[in-house]
Amino acid sequence: MSQAILNAVGTAASPRNRRVVSNWLFAVCFMIWVMVGIGGYTRDTGSGLSIMDWDPIIGALPPLSQAAWNRVFALYQQIPQYKILHQGMDLAGFKSLFWPEYIHRLWGRLIGVVFFVPLIVFACTGRIEARLLPWLGLLFVLGGLQGAIGWFMVASGFDPNSVAVQPWRLSLHFSFALFLYVATLWTALTVRNPTPTRLFGQTALKTWVIAAIVLLAVTMFAGTFVSGTHAIDVFNPATNAGLGMPPPEYFALTPWWLNFFAYKPAILFNHQALGTATALIVLITAVLALRGKTPKPVKDTALAVGALVLLQYILGVTALVSKLLDAGVAHQLNSVLLLTAFVVMLHQLRGATR
Q: Which is nearest to 317 in space by CA: 304, 306, 330?
């Protein structure tokens, strides 16, 4: 690298370069968050099985001719979802399924480009510290693996006895996306503020934050099975089904553990119970942060956490009662925002001591 470039760029550890690199990673986080919403919409509309090819390069282009449209439609007509749910659908109806899944896959490719191209540019210009490069390279590889997991999920919907993807594969796809999101977010926060602030007497609050994050993650994991099995369909106020009480036959399936992943009444109740427990723990954590002698940035984050968990509960009830697709997607997106606020709070408290 020439001396002129070095002088213009400065050292990788300079505040300016840290802002540039962290802003780039925050942008990637935003794109992953949007991807969660697109994926939720794709799943709830049943669009995920409309594209039966997995072409990471060529598949970036949609059908560009009538013959191409006829080919992808003919492929879709071979799978059980079409024969059972959409028999007789015309090409216009197929396109309404195709475009959400196409946008989903295209957005995934764009995330890869937005991550990879700046990574190479920043590495070549010395804006990124050398010790971070292996980790960022690993994140890129894991992003590619997420695409493969997505296809692994979609492929399960081509089974002759299925009209949807297997819920556990959907859960794997979503959970891995969250891992990538949190890993990228934590990296961005650390690049922006590399040195932890010593916070005396805050270890108890940090423990509460960790507990809340774990419980929130479990609740979100349980929510993927609500979506994957359409467990929301069992909600019926006339029979008290889905009103937050354990179903009469909680262990209807054998072996017993299968009820947590395949028995809709149990799946819905588990998510509701976990959601209520999570809301309580989150609110307690927020109150502890606001009442304690914590720095103002932590208190500000605690206010955001409290507001987001109340909104999350409202969105969850709204999605359950109305069964509106938009409410369900908003519920999913807001859960990631709540997780984001907690990750920020944990990062703020990483220097907590007794």
A: 330
